[in-house]
Amino acid sequence: MDVIVQKYGGSSLSTLAKIDALAEAIAKREAGAERLVLVVSAMGNTTDELLKMAHTLSPRPPEREVDMLLTTGEQVSIALMAIALAKHGADAISFTGGQVGIRTSEHHTKARIESVSADRILPHLQERRIVIVAGFQGVAEDDSLTTLGRGGSDITAMALAVALKAKRLEKYTDREGVYTADPRIHPQARTIPRLSYQEMLEMSHTGAKILHPRAVFFAWKFGVPILVRESMGEGSGTLIEEMEENVEQAIIRGVTHDASVAKITVYDVPDVPGIASTIFEELAKREIGVDMIVQSNTEEATNDISFTIKRADVGSTVEALNALQMKGAKVHADPEVARVSLVGLGIKTETAVASKMFRALADRGINIQMIATSDVKISCVISEVQVKDAVQAVCKTFGL
Predict the structure, then answer these.
(1) Which pTM was predicted?
(2) What's the structural domain count of the chain?
(3) Which residues, 6+ apart, have CB-to-CB distance to 304 below 8 Å?
(4) What is the mean pLDDT of the chain?
(5) Are residues 302 and 170 in the same domain?
(6) What pLDDT was estimated at residue 77?
(7) Is the domain of 361 the same as that of 276?
């Protein structure tokens, strides 16, 4: 039994007309040999609207109750999709994340999936029924509802694809596939036919909004191909799968940017063993993710440590660092930065790539504040107001 998991985002479900059109197309496809599992997000901007309600009532609403509120968005979508499919002659049934056995940690608003059961879904697939599952949600050990954080429906879809041993995951969006850059900033950007898991993982981490990084990691770990396509389009999209990475010449895939980051610098940190671990252990306790890290020595037996975080975590990060009471240390937060990254196989082995990227930025008068590299990525932190210039400059240099 070939199982295909399809994931539909909020933009593809933003109106009843869109849901109806999708249901009609899905019902026609269901006549084939494949068994379909649909994972859907909340309609349009529903999640943002629900969050706005919560924060209108309280500046700091209890996270458990926020999860209770946000999970309703996906429940509306699954019911409407099932109703629309029935209208078009398809046998379909909808489930919440908890009903199909998605168990998570107890970290409300940012839970992690701990286990998934296929037992509730398989009998329906064997009866040729389309199964529709609410993305973004699960249940904790105490049966309280949880959500997986922004983009969590991608994680739901991939977790189900793994549990069901799916042939592939199909991610449907309002774009034709994965682009060489954000077309809103660089209109000449084009779709990329194929990407490796590692390339897509780096693009997701560095700002591409197509797939959640955790979903790509699961795909890589378990060898599940991902096809990214436009919801109602006829293009071939972008296929993400295992690819040969032992290349002598760099293959430049694309440029990503992320304007949701902030730079934290801790000045005059005592130069003693264990101080870095103390800092980052404290942030880890608070579930604060850290990305680029740079440490520089001074002549006064102190260090300056800079790192990037999500802009939403600035307040809690500064609070955590001040609570450590490091003697003489000063904490500075700069939320007006952004990260621009060049992604592609073999970048690390091609020495000219970095110099060409840095020259492209320099020629536009763009100062680089931090640099980080990996086998398939070069990232630079710059001023947020220069993001558009930076993306266009690097795309032009590398023919993207």
Answers:
(1) 0.85
(2) 3
(3) 265, 266, 267, 268, 269, 295, 296, 298
(4) 89
(5) no
(6) 97
(7) no
The predicted model gives 94-117 an average pLDDT of: 92
Q: Are residues 318 and 354 in the same domain?
A: no
User: Measured between alpha carbons, how far is 288 from 312 in angstroms, rounded to an integer?
Assistant: 10
User: Using CA atoms, how far apart are residues 305 and 325, in angstroms rounded to an integer?
Assistant: 15
| pLDDT of 297 higher than 80 | no
Return the residue matching tokens 């068994």: 35
Same domain flag for 312 and 368: no
Q: How far is CA 240 from CA 144, 196, 210, 229, in A?
A: 35, 6, 12, 11
- The single-letter code of the amino acid at 59 is P
**Domain-embedded: residue 146:** yes
| Cα(149)–Cα(143) distance, integer angstroms | 18
Q: Check whether 374 has a pLDDT greater than 60.
A: yes
Residue with tokens 């943002």: 48
| CA pair distance 139, 332, nearest whole angstrom | 38
Q: What is the C-alpha end-to-end distance of the chain, expressed in Å?
A: 40
With tokens 């398809």, the residue in question is 90
User: Please, which residues have CB within 8 angstroms of residue 46's CB and are 6 or more apart in sequence?
Assistant: 10, 73, 76
**Is pLDDT above 60 for 356?**
yes
Q: Express as a percent the part of the chain with pLDDT over 70.
A: 96
Q: By residue range, what is the domain housing residue 301?
A: 265-328
9 and 89 belong to one structural domain: yes
CA atoms within 13 A on the CB side of 166: 28
